[in-house]
Every structure is written in C-alpha cells, then in structure tokens.
Amino acid sequence: MASSSSPQPPERLIFAQHGWSDTGKYLGELVRSVAPAHSEVVAPSLKFVNTWLRINPLVQEKEKLVQSFLIRYPDLPIRVVAHSMGGLIWTELLHRHPEWWAQVESFVMVGSPIGGSDVARMIDPLGLGIGIARDLGSDRRDLAEQIARQIPTLVIASDLGNGTDGLVAVEATKVPGSEFKLLSTVSHAAMRYSPAVAQEIQKFWQQAGVEPEVMNPIAEGVIRSLRSVPGMTAAGYRDFAKAQVRCELGDGITLRTWKNPAQIQHIYVADRGGNCLFAGYVGWGHGKGITQVVEAVKQGN
C-alpha cells in the first residue's frame, strides 16, 4: 500500500484502485497529481497474479483495508478513483456497504467494463468460470446505476475507433445516472496515467454537481430492454455500417441488426444522424431474446 504523507491530519481520503493485470503504481501517481491539499491517497496493490484469479477475494481484501481507514477516520469524506476492474471492485464494495454512501463525495470509474467485458466473455463464453474472465464478463450496470443515483459518479471512457479503447467497449462503460466523458486518443492501459484523464477528474471534483448523460427517451427505453436480454454483451461499432434497419422508433431512432459469418446476432440503436448509440451481440443460444425485443418494438410502433 502506498499513501501520501501530510504534516497534518488529512481532510479527506481518496482511494485509488487499479484493475486487472496491474499493481497500482501509475494510477496512484495520477491521483496524487490531482488530489486536493491535505488529502490522504490510498493506492493499494492487489498483486499482479491475484488479479488473474477471482474478484471476490480482491473485494474482501479491499473491504478490510477500507474498514481499517474508517475506524481511524470515521467522519472524513471519501473519494474513489478506479481504473478498469478496480471500478467493478468498488461497485461491489459500495453495493455491500450502503452505510458508506453518505461519506462518499464522488466515484470515478476509468475504462471500467461495468456492463461486462466482451473480451472476457469470448474467453469464457459458457460461463464455466475460467479465471477472472467469469467475473469481468458479469454485468453490474444495475448495481452501478443504484450507486450513481445517490453518489456523484463520473465515467471516463475512450474510443480509439470502432467504439473501443483497445480492450473495453465504450458501451460496456456506460452507467445511467452518471456523468459520461468520452476521450478519443487514449488506450485502455494509458488511461492510468493520461493527463486527459487527470484533467477530467479535476473538472469533475471542482464542479458543483453531476450532469448525467442525457439520452433520447425512446432510445433509452429500447436500450434498457436490449441490455436485459440474456447473454447480451457490449460490442464495439466496427460492424455497425453493415447492419440493416429493422424498424424506426420515432424521433429518427432506428433499430438495426447484423449477423457475422459465424451467425452471431448483433444489434444496434442509432440516432437521427446515423450515430451508434448502442451496440451489442448475443451468442447462438440467446438469439431468440433479440428477436423477441425486435418484435415487441415493432408492435409498439
């Protein structure tokens, strides 16, 4: 564990949590660079090897650490900055400890696959429990949304092209009720030390209140339905141009589908300008769920 030193008692605690295949060095340095004066930055390493195993022992380890600080500083405000899997760990923690919420001033997730990692689901498509893949592939969006409704939450994502930061799909990072910032030139790994990320964190901490992402209500309703389809996995936008319009929903919103050569069903929601608002796919065993949603949408229009 690394923490910043201060000549006087801290005025706040800032927990910086690294993600999968990492040790926390870079994220800790980034958070210290933007931390307000008299903050104690706590940037523990969960150990590189442990991040390849299971998430629950990592959550439990983090839980004990946070509790030890809350015993020492029971009244200090808390801020959280988490990269990648670190955002999943803190989502689990906050879900388990709603009694902490009143102390948490803000929650920042950087490149966190809160809707489930498509890479992890490709590694473990049947949910057999292959290493950390099962945990990274799980959808925690409902938990994160509950938290974001009570705690000011910032989601930072990056699109290197085709709706992905090179590892995590932009769609997988989105949390209803949060403020959403999309960068365009920062890879998933580089987000741990990116000046652009640091700048967004500073701006978020300095502003008076959160500005949740605002979406067309028609699109939002359909996207919620799609996210609830069993097996739905966030996807990039690479194949969006190949999709065919299945139906128009009003306000220029369209629902589009496409099957790849392996007959994997992809589905997209686009706005009036043809911009992709949602991208996802399901495996062979869950295609019926997409068909049902499409038919329900058609009948509702």
Q: Point out poorly predicted stretches.
A: none
Alpha-beta content class = alpha/beta
Strand content: 15-25%
pLDDT average, as an integer? 88
Tell me the CATH superfamily of the largest domain.
Alpha/Beta hydrolase fold, catalytic domain
Number of helices: 10
Q: What is the rounded distance between the termini?
A: 56 Å
This entry's quaternary arrangement is single chain
Radius of gyration: 20 Å
Which percent bin holds the helix content? Answer: 25-40%
Largest sheet entry: 6 strands, parallel
CATH third-level topology of the largest domain: Rossmann fold
Q: What is the total tally of β strands?
A: 11
The succession of helices and strands, N to C, reads EHEHEHEHHHEHEHHEEEEEH
CATH architecture grouping of the largest domain: 3-Layer(aba) Sandwich
Helix-strand layout with pairing:
Elements: E1 12-17, H1 25-34, E2 39-42, H2 55-72, E3 78-83, H3 85-96, E4 104-110, H4 118-123, H5 133-136, H6 141-148, E5 153-158, H7 170-173, E6 179-183, H8 195-206, H9 217-227, E7 233-234, E8 244-250, E9 253-259, E10 265-270, E11 276-282, H10 287-300
Parallel strand pairs: 1-2, 1-3, 3-4, 4-5, 5-6
Antiparallel strand pairs: 7-11, 8-9, 9-10, 10-11
